[in-house]
Structures are given as C-alpha cells and as structure tokens.
Amino acid sequence: MAILSLEKIRKVYDKGGNPVVALGGVDLEIGKGEYLAVVGPSGSGKTTLLNIIGCLDAPTEGRLVYADRELRGLGERELSEYRKEHVSFIFQSFNLIPVLTVIENVELPLVIERKLKPTEIRARARELLAAVGLSDKEGRYPRELSGGQEQRVAIARALVKNPIVVLADEPTANLDSHTAEEIVELMRRVNQERNTTFVFSTHDRLVMEHARRIVTLRDGAVTGDERR
Ligand SMILES: Nc1ncnc2c1ncn2[C@@H]1O[C@H](COP(=O)(O)OP(=O)(O)OP(=O)(O)O)[C@@H](O)[C@H]1O
Ligand SMILES: [Mg+2]
Known about the structure:
36% helix, Rossmann fold, 6-stranded mixed sheet, alpha/beta
C-alpha cells in the first residue's frame, strides 16, 4: 500500500517573468517503510520534489495523496498536523541551534509541541540519542561536535516525534565519504527497526548504493526507477 502517491505533479517556477519547469508531471508511489534515494543531475528537480512531498511548497498542478487523503483537500489544521507530526526533515547543513545543547536540540520539536511533560521529553530525547550513538554528548554544544555527529543529532531530532516519513535533502553533502556512509547506514537501521519511510536525495554514488530503491530524475521527469 502506498503511503504517498504523487500524481502528475508539475511545478513551474517564475524566474524573473520566465517560467521554469522544475517538475514536468511526476507520477510516483512510495510505500510505507521504503528506503528511497532520489538521484539526478543538479537542477533535475530533487529538492523541488522533496519540498512538495513535505508540503513546504505546493505543486502548480497534480495531486499529492498521503495515506489515502489528498493533501490539497485537507483543512489548514490537518495540513499542519501532517507537517508537524507525520513528516520530518533532515537538511544538508544540519540546522542545529548553536545556543542549545545536543539534548536540547533533540528535545526542541517536543518542547514546541507541549504535549509531554519535561521529564517525558528528556527520556524520549535520551532514547533517541542512544539510538544514534551519542549518549555521551548530550551536554555538548553543536560546535563541539564533528559534522557526522552533528548530522546524527539532526537525525535524532527528526525522529523524536516518531514520524511516518523522513525527508532528507542531500543529508551527506557536507560530510566526508566515510562519514556519509555511516549516516546512510544509520538511517537504514532506523528504517528497518522502526519501519520509518526515508526519502533522501543524493549526488553520492556510495550513498545511493545503500538505497533499496533509486528514482532518477532528469529535467523534472522520472527517467529511472530501480528496486534492489
Ligand atoms: N525558487 C525557485 N525559483 C525559480 N526557479 C527555481 C527555484 N527553485 C528551483 N528552481 C529551478 O527549478 C529547477 C529544479 O531545481 P531543484 O533545486 O529542485 O534541483 P535539484 O535537483 O535539487 O538540484 P541540486 O542537485 O543542484 O540541488 C532548476 O532549474 C532550478 O533552477
Ligand atoms: Mg537540490
């Protein structure tokens, strides 16, 4: 069963009065628990696709269906619930808050949500830090970590609310190739243990080798879809 269906998704940007077709009618079904890499040359539409799946950006045309419900048809409250609870993002630049400690960064989504008590939030954040192998760093600040450790904190933060789908736009772009492999292996472990769906873009051959499915974009169209 597909958790996400993209039907004829088109995205046209306006670049100084000229239309730029970033996605030219993409059809894609993503199953729950998939571990999917989106690859393709620079400008092929990878970031645009991830932003549309995460509802950070709206398609010009086409339908995005999540768990059998068309997202465009949802009310503001449900849409914001999708964005806050069902999907989360990992960025290539980690985007940690420098004045917060490692554990405070991981807690932040739960603190904003204000559903759990502080002691519950702390326990949950500790569980996630343990899962990414950084229990000993909880009191550190992001600047005291290596790039790979920062990205592991960002992964813990992305997972703290137990999202159904994690979207990652070139999560390993700022890492050396060895650390990049560690990060994709960590995401894969989470994918297997929690059945979290991962959709990530990458330029890196080593990183795409770890994917279970590789969707290739070229000029805003899907030109390849390989399962392995
Ligand atoms: N905000 C924008 N305004 C105008 N054009 C845009 C905008 N964002 C993206 N584009 C254009 O849409 C196309 C797809 O861009 P996108 O960023 O999705 O590609 P990408 O595959 O992520 O590239 P990269 O590998 O360099 O990150 C490109 O032609 C780009 O110039
Ligand atoms: Mg991009």
